[in-house]
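Quick one, probably user error.
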């Protein structure tokens, strides 16, 4: 069953001659439990699409159905409640509150739901233990590594057991080891039935997805279904057909080039004035001796 349905969704910014088309008649159905990677160059509309799906923005045209409910008919307080309870956000910059401890950051969404302080701290501690950071629950965000901070951001996104996780470049600021940690955590969440939408520029991360969408100029121009653990077919073809040059290849190329150039006698070199004077003196000396 489709949890997200977009029909001819377009988004315009600006007015008159300054109007910019951010999304161009997007049609997209996302099934429950899918892991979708969204790729494309900067400015292709990826983040705008995620903002609309996450109810942070509204489409200018078209319809959006979320769990069979028309988003257009939702009142502001209903939209806020759905964002709080059904959608978890993970951003590239973590967005942890710097003056709150790790456990208070994770527990914050529960405070908005009216959960008692004791109960929300207990739930936050359980979530931190799940991601392996229970021993850092009283650390401040500045005391964490990038991977740890992003893991805390994911724990905060999961605290309300959302049906959808929207991850916008969650590994963009991380090294390879931390990126692997975050992707394995998202993979574990996906295996539990959560729908995940991942925006990324890294082709390697398509190994975790079940479908890859390619965007350009505000439109979805191509999509591919993938097997978990494998690159999307487009990237797999380009990766495995790419020739790798070695030093021997370079030397072979130089050798072939030298054979292809015909041998040409070197033209006689012109003597400089100094060389000519030296030659004349040597000739005169030889004549006198003879």
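Nope, works fine. Designed sequence:
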């Amino acid at each position: 069953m489709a949890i997200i349905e977009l029909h001819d969704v377009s988004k315009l910014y600006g007015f008159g001659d300054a109007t910019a088309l951010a999304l161009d008649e997007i049609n997209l159905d996302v099934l429950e439990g899918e892991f979708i990677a969204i790729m494309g160059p900067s400015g292709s509309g990826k983040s705008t699409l995620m903002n609309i799906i996450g109810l942070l923005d509204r489409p200018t045209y078209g319809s959006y159905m979320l769990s069979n409910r028309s988003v257009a008919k939702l009142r502001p307080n209903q939209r806020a409640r759905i964002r709080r309870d059904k959608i978890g956000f993970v951003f590239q910059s973590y967005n942890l509150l710097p003056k709150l401890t790790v456990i208070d950051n994770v527990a914050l969404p529960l405070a908005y739901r009216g959960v008692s302080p004791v109960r929300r701290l207990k739930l936050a501690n359980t979530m931190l233990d799940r991601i392996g950071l229970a021993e850092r629950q009283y650390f401040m965000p500045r005391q964490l590594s990038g991977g740890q901070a992003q893991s805390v951001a994911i724990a905060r996104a999961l605290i309300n057991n959302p049906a959808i996780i929207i991850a916008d470049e969650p590994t963009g600021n991380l090294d390879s080891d931390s990126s692997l940690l975050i992707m394995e955590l998202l993979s574990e969440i996906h295996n539990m039935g959560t729908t995940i939408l991942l925006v990324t520029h890294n082709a390697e991360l398509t190994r975790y997805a079940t479908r890859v969408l390619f965007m350009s100029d505000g439109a979805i121009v191509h999509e591919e279904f993938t097997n978990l653990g494998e690159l999307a077919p487009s990237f797999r073809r380009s990766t495995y057909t790419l020739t790798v040059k070695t030093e021997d290849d370079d030397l072979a190329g130089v050798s072939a080039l030298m054979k292809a150039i015909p041998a040409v006698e070197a033209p006689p070199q012109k003597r400089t004035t100094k060389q000519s004077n030296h030659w004349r003196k040597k000739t005169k000396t030889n004549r006198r001796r003879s």
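Residues 239-247, 252-271 have pLDDT under 50 and may be disordered.
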